[in-house]
Amino acid sequence: MTEQITVRGYVATDPESRNLPDGTVVVAFRLASTPRWYDAQTASWRDGHTNWFTVQAFRALGLNALASVKKGQPVVVVGRLKVRFWEGEHGRNTAVDLDAVSIGHDLALGTAGFQRTISSAPPAGPAASSPAADGAGDQGEGHDAATGEGASAEPRTQVPDDVDPETGELLDTDGGAAPGAGSEAGSSANPSARSKTGRQPATA
């Protein structure tokens, strides 16, 4: 018979640990569950029949129970019920086991503290870096991720259309054409040649 039930009771023995042949940790303790109710006629509490269970907890649950549960403490156990029959020197006997899936202290009767256990799983590897992050690392310390340019690069200034970007002078609004290569070369040879064109230096 296998059925999941919830049992309230008191821990009757200190938890004991053992290992299965495959290395699995099993912690077991005896649990006594006695129903109790208030009798109004006698104005007193009355106890019913005590049911005994052998609670078994496996792996991490067993280790946590071994460190947390003590004899005499009230607990609540959720687990799968198993009833076994076996022959002894006094005849047929019955054993009731409870393979626990959850164990906790009964907070209706007191308080308890909780501390989360750290998983024994190996730590996860380093997170995979994104292509954007890899590319940013290749640019060096002076790379500006926002603009894609070096942080030390000079800012670019927008030059108006009517201003010569080389000399800073206003272009001739009548002609509208920039000087050719020949006139530019001549201007370089004779600096006074540009002053005869009538152009005026650009003002801020």
Automatic annotation (TrEMBL):
Pfam families: SSB (PF00436). GO terms for biological process: DNA replication. PROSITE patterns: SSB. It comes from the Bacteria. One of its GO terms (cellular component) is nucleoid. SUPFAM superfamilies: Nucleic acid-binding proteins. Residues 161-172 have a biased composition (Acidic residues). Residues 194-204 have a biased composition (Polar residues). GO terms for molecular function: single-stranded DNA binding. Residues 119-136, 180-193 have a biased composition (Low complexity). InterPro entries: NA-bd_OB-fold, Primosome_PriB/ssb, ssDNA-bd. Transmembrane segments: none annotated. Keywords: DNA-binding. Residues 118-204 are annotated as: Disordered. The keyword Cell membrane does not apply. This is Single-stranded DNA-binding protein.
